[in-house]
Amino acid sequence: MNKNFSPFPILETERLFLRKLSLDDAEEIFALRSSDEVNKYIDRPKANDIDEAIAFINKVNIGVANDNWLYWVICFKDNPMLIGTICLWNLNEFENKAEVGYELIPEYQGKGIAQEALSKIIEFGFDNVQLNKIEAYTHKENLSSTKLLEKFNFVRDLHEESKIDFTVENPNTVVYSLFK
Q: 71: how many CB neighbours lie within 10 A of its CB?
């Protein structure tokens, strides 16, 4: 696993920039983390004020600086305003895997933005971080997220009832067997 994230990797897709989170994003982070619609399927306390958003940004950026995780702002190429976030976190060096998480401001959902961003993060995770596996977790009623993960060949673990566990493996990883 390659855990050197300095300089921070700014990624680009056809329509999007995936950039580092900054204090300039505090208003949008507060909107995202206090939204009933966004938080409907996420098990976390809602943000109560802008100070909590600023504290979150600082926490995220300390983790990024320490190579603990990667957390990108999703924005359009022609507008640096945050419309969502996507991250690789819970990095597990022993198993060479990470978890992906993503969220969009409601008005940007259903427009292929999450699909475009997730495609780039999966590519980055396998090619640059050299992960063998990426996991994702979603609430069983979050059908949009379930469909999105299935588009990228994430395989569902059917043992969980309250949430859905998904995994996708790096197709470029060679697995050697002692038994032929």
A: 21
pTM for the structure as a whole: 0.90
% of the chain residues with pLDDT over 70:
92
User: Is the separation of the CB atoms in 49 and 34 below 8 Å?
Assistant: no
- Residue type, position 90, single letter: N
Give the Cα separation of 112 and 127 in Å (integer): 23
Residue 82 Cα to chain centre, angstroms = 14
**pLDDT tens figures, 20-42:** 999 999 999 999 999 999 999 88
Radius of gyration of the CA atoms of the chain, in A: 16
Say if CB 165 and CB 135 are below 8 A apart.
yes
User: Which candidate, 73, 100, 97, 67, places its Cα nearest to that of 85?
Assistant: 73
Determine how β-strand 133-139 pairs with β-strand 163-169.
antiparallel
pLDDT band at 160, cuts 50/70/90?
A: low
What would the 3-class secondary structure string for 53-103 be? HHHHHHHHHHHHHCCCCEEEEEEECCEEEEEEEEEEEEEECCCCEEEEEEE
The letter for the amino acid at 109 is Q
- Asked if residue 101 lies in contact with residue 83, where contact means CB atoms within 8 angstroms, the answer is no
Q: What are the chain's domains?
A: 11-169 (3.40.630.30)
